[in-house]
Design goal:
This protein has 383 residues and is an alpha/beta fold. The chain has twelve helices and 15 strands. Strand 10 and strand 11 form a beta hairpin. The chain binds pyridoxal-5'-phosphate.
């Protein structure tokens, strides 16, 4: 095969002409003497469309998923000594959102097959100080929502989902945005859709909770009634009018873009099926948002590490991979923070095994063949 670069981040085709036109339309309108850059009606239109797409009563758009998680933790009124349970195999902010409010982060182990937080492992870590559980829909595969619902009903502990990877994820045929107390989505540039590089949304079926999120994102203002009021300490966590407009055009085609990701990931599943040394991700299919394709090296079967394999893919075949994730507690910032460091053996092993392959909606099918060929060649050479 012809050795050629396949970088992990090659996002060509992130925007299409309709996205550009949406942005320009909003900017052009604002050049008129009576034009406005005030976010309405795009903000409302985008939020309504996103809520509908994710099956939630409300969506409140804000400037990132991390901000959404922060706001949810603020609204729970966490106090020092309170505990929040999450997975260690995630991006830092699934945990630091709780630390930032003074809570202690409790890490529970993941399920080996799905790499999602294991509800039974969570149960074992619940104490009378547990104030929230933050499961992450890893790579775009829904967590065991029914099991988390049951935990929440039994204990009264709210579930806040980190849905950064999960735009369009389904569970038993239905969108997931109304499950738990809230779900926090990301529209950062690497995600399945983007509002010009940064952005996010909190969805919820709890209309009062969604209204509290809205207040936090816009300085605590409440409009309507005889006069404007400021009813809580809030912040400016808003997106711009142009971002809402681009969000609308991205959302209009998200199902097509996700289908393109899915098609490529299912092709990769076929291409790698015979490689005994790999553990392929489960669940890629119509319910999966196909955000990431996270393969694992079965380190029980081989005498080399996933890091060596990733290095070989990069150095010999010019193929970039990514690592989802270093365990959250391994980052130096966590040395200063309160957290539970009891073992999570499945997550610890998984973190040593994972490698995300470069598969995006526009990845040429020849590149999939090339990646699979290089993977087999690299494994054979290291064997
Ligand atoms: C699992 C997870 N949660 C949260 C985030 C944060 O999203 P944002 O960059 O929109 O704050 C990310 C971003 O990479 C993520 O992967």
């Amino acid at each position: 095969m012809d050795i050629h670069p396949v970088p992990f981040i090659s996002l060509g085709g992130l925007f299409e002409q309709d996205d550009v036109e949406a942005a320009v339309r909003v900017m052009n309108a604002a050049t008129e003497p009576d034009g406005s850059f005030f976010p309405l009606p795009e903000e409302t239109d985008f939020q309504d469309a996103f809520a509908e797409h994710e099956g939630a009563a409300r969506a409140i758009a804000l400037n990132s998923c991390g901000t959404g998680l922060d706001v949810c933790m603020m609204l729970l009124g966490l106090e020092p000594g309170d505990e929040v349970i999450t997975t260690p195999l995630t991006f830092v902010c699934s945990a630091t959102c709780a630390s930032a409010q003074g809570a202690k982060v409790i890490f529970a182990d993941i399920d080996h097959a799905t790499m999602n937080l294991d509800p039974e492992a969570v149960r074992a870590k619940i104490t009378d100080r547990t104030r929230a559980i933050i499961p992450v829909h890893f790579a775009g595969l829904a967590c065991d929502l029914d099991a988390f619902d049951a935990i929440s009903e039994e204990t009264g502990i709210p579930i806040i989902y980190d849905a950064a990877h999960a735009v369009g994820t389904l569970y038993h045929g239905k969108p997931i945005g109304g499950r738990g107390l809230a779900s926090c989505y990301s529209f950062q540039s690497l995600k399945n859709m983007t509002t010009l590089g940064e952005g996010g949304a909190v969805t919820s079926d709890d209309i009062e909770f969604a209204e509290q999120v809205r207040r936090k994102k816009t300085f605590g203002y409440v409009y309507g009634g005889p006069s404007v009021r400021v009813v809580t300490v809030g912040f400016n966590y808003r997106m711009t009018k142009v971002q809402y407009a681009v969000g609308l055009s991205q959302l209009a085609k998200i199902d097509r873009v996700t289908a393109a990701r899915r098609e490529r990931m299912l092709r990769m599943e076929q291409l790698l099926a015979e490689v005994d040394e790999l553990i392929l991700p489960v669940g890629h299919g119509p319910e999966h948002a196909s955000h990431l394709y996270v393969a694992r090296l079965d380190t029980d079967k081989v005498g080399f590490s996933a890091a060596e394999l990733r290095d070989r893919l990069k150095d010999t075949y010019l193929i970039g991979t990514s690592h989802h994730y270093c365990l959250v507690w391994s980052w130096e910032a966590f040395r200063e923070l309160a957290y539970d460091n009891s073992a999570c053996p499945v997550a610890e092993k998984t973190s040593e095994q994972v490698m995300s392959l470069p598969i995006f909606p526009h990845t040429p099918f020849e590149d999939l063949d090339y990646i699979a060929w290089a993977m087999k060649d690299a494994v054979a050479a290291l064997r």
